[in-house]
Specification:
Blueprint: H1 2-20, H2 27-38, H3 42-54, H4 60-66, H5 71-93, H6 101-129, H7 134-145, H8 148-160, H9 166-187, H10 197-224, H11 231-246, H12 251-256, H13 258-264, H14 281-301, H15 307-313, H16 326-335, H17 349-352, H18 356-366, H19 369-377, H20 379-385, H21 392-409, H22 412-415, H23 424-432, H24 434-445, H25 449-478, H26 483-490, H27 493-511, E1 517-521, E2 524-528, H28 531-583
Antiparallel strand pairs: 1-2
InterPro entries: MFS_trans_sf (IPR036259), NFD4_C (IPR056555), Nodulin-like (IPR010658)
Main location: membrane
Keywords: Membrane, Transmembrane, Transmembrane helix
Length: 584
């Protein structure tokens, strides 16, 4: 039982790490000041944001480091990367030292790389300590990464609301302090023993409680995260936020009472499977055996399966059902070309890049979540150009909080699956809907403060869901054992998108300097007026529609595989429950 308590301590430590290491989300809070100090153009400022996102390209280096160094040492390597990357930038923005632009670029790259190393450490801790519920652990902890900007905004207001450079100092020091606080639980990790089905479900209820607490934390930061009335009030609110982050430490005490909780409350819920990855290992292997058995039996005994069932498991090279009309068959053949046979089939990298479904998924992410991230990087200049510089902290808090809610919502499909089942790729399509709506709203009503706030919230909600759901979708479509490599291939779209979308916005921004009100700060120029980002919002809105269409096509092409998987699981679920009750 003590070991069970320690694993929850590890989970809380991971929550702390994730909550304070999403430092790339507060770039817009100090970007205007950085541009002014360095005397650079909007395009050059965008390259600094790209450098931070390029850190994800080198995320593989953290896995290499784990092969030769213990986990706690890799954690502190990440902390010191951030300390030097952000710390030296703070010295530059405070005019303590002067560095050429290229060195500042590499400092941003180093800081971005530290974020990937922190994420790798957190993923390893979740997978190692929660093998049966690792999906729920990943879902919960990844969600807290989206709230970092709101926490730093609150901390900045509590110390000095007028200092934008303070964010860089906090980015450098706070992750190191949190790493020190998390060291004891990490060093005292328990040995992991196999859990019974009853214990797995009991842990699922514990995760449900933690998700409820996470929602309360998000609501608290949304309501009070941008309060700038006075320093003393901000300090009080910061204390409340820290309390909400420390409160999960009560979970180990709840573990001792889980038997009582299970018997009194658990029967009211029907939680099947994970809350983050639809395909767990046991269900996946069973699904593969059922598909193989049906295919073999059909080959030996003729067409014992119905035409509909046969079509669900055949690739595009096979003919469609004869009952389909000729006109519809042509369209369906195109839709079913190179179609997935089943969920969870392993795809090595060279096979992955040859799949049409992967590129639909890649474009959907590229034109969805990545645009949302670039929007957050430009929030400082967007607010400044529209004359809302004083609302930058509020907009940053809105984006961060709703990104946090979006990440939490990525686990909702499995909680409602017992009553309403829908393919994960379908949920992804729904999550992409707010993005084009938000950008077209911003293009039409950008001068409205309310439109700016609503648009920011919608983009944060949409991108947060996509960021959190991406790991599960990759695992389901292209295999859980290959998810590490395949997901790193997928997220190469982030630095590419950051470069393309950011340069697009910067070129339009600089091109409109002469048309609107022009302000000079050092050698940099600030564009003021609606035209500064109008065309950018239109372009981003059109591109997000492309992402939505690709996501819809992906859903249509994969729906049959999800439906077949769910039917197979429904067939064996009663048997599994009967076996569990017999053992109990």
């Amino acid at each position: 039982m003590a070991g069970q308590s320690r694993k929850w301590m590890v989970l809380v430590a991971v929550i702390w790490i994730q909550a304070f290491t999403g430092t790339n989300f507060d770039f817009s809070a100090y970007s205007s000041e950085m541009k002014k100090v360095l005397g650079i153009s909007q395009v050059q400022l965008n390259y600094l944001a790209v450098a931070s996102d390029m850190g994800k390209v080198f995320g593989w280096s953290s896995g290499l480091a784990l092969m030769y160094f213990p986990l706690w040492m890799v954690l502190f390597m990440a902390a010191f990367m951030g300390l030097f990357g952000y710390g030296i930038q703070w010295l530059v923005i405070c005019n303590v030292i002067s560095l050429p632009y290229i060195l500042v670029f590499f400092l941003c790259l180093l800081a971005g790389c530290s974020i990937c190393w922190f994420n790798t450490v957190c993923f390893v801790l979740c997978i190692k300590n929660f093998p049966a519920n690792r999906a729920l652990a990943l879902s919960l902890t990844v969600s807290y990464n989206g709230v970092s900007a709101a926490l730093y905004a609150l901390a900045g207001d509590a110390i000095s609301a007028s200092s934008s450079s303070l964010y860089l100092l906090l980015n450098s020091l706070v992750p190191l302090i949190v790493s020190i606080a998390a060291l004891v639980p990490i060093l005292r990790q328990p040995s992991v023993d196999p859990l019974s089905p009853v214990a797995v479900r009991s842990d699922s209820i514990m995760f449900l409680l933690l998700n409820v607490l996470a929602v309360l934390t998000g609501v608290y930061l949304l309501l009070f995260g941008s309060n700038t009335s006075d320093t003393s009030t901000s300090r009080l609110l910061l204390g409340g936020a820290i309390f909400l982050l420390v409160f999960p430490l009560c979970v180990p005490g709840v573990v001792y009472a889980r038997r009582w909780f299970h018997h009194t409350v658990h029967s009211s819920f029907q939680l099947r499977g994970s809350g983050f990855i639809l395909v767990d290992d046991d269900d996946l292997e069973l699904h593969k055996r059922l598909v193989s058995r049906e295919t073999s039996y059909n080959n030996l005994n003729g067409s014992s399966l119905s035409n509909d069932e046969v079509c669900e498991y055949r690739s595009s090279s096979q003919k469609l059902c004869n009952k389909e009309e000729d006109g519809a068959r042509c369209c369906e053949k195109m839709m079913e070309k190179d179609q997935l046979v089943m969920l969870g089939e392993e795809h090595p990298a060279h096979v992955l890049v040859g799949r049409l479904d992967f590129w639909l998924y890649y474009i959907a992410y590229f034109c969805g979540g990545t645009i949302g991230l670039v929007y957050s990087n430009n929030l400082g200049q967007i607010a400044q150009s529209l004359g809302h510089s004083s609302n930058t902290t509020l907009l940053l808090t809105l984006y961060s909080s709703f990104s946090f809610f979006g990440r939490l919502l990525s686990a909702a499909p499995d909680y409602v699956r017992a009553k309403f089942y829908f393919a994960r790729t379908g949920w992804l399509t729904i999550a992409l809907l707010p993005t084009p709506v938000a950008f077209f709203l911003l293009a039409a009503l950008s001068n409205s403060t309310e439109a700016l706030r609503v648009g920011t919230a919608l983009i944060g909600l949409s991108s947060g869901f996509i960021f959190a759901a991406a790991v599960s979708v990759t695992s389901e479509l292209f295999g859980p054992n290959s998810v590490g490599v395949n997901h790193n291939i997928l997220i190469t779209n982030i630095p590419i998108g950051s470069l393309i979308y950011g340069v697009l916005a910067a070129v339009i921004y600089d091109g409109n300097v002469g048309r609107g009100l022009k302000l000079m700060f050092s050698d940099s120029v600030v564009c003021m007026g609606r035209d500064c980002y109008f065309l950018t919002f239109v372009w981003w809105g059109c591109l997000s529609v492309v992402g939505l269409v690709c996501s819809l096509l992906l859903f249509i092409r994969t729906k049959h595989a999800y439906d077949a998987f769910e039917r197979n699981r429904a067939l064996v679920e009663p048997q599994r429950n009967w076996s569990s009750n017999s053992i109990a």
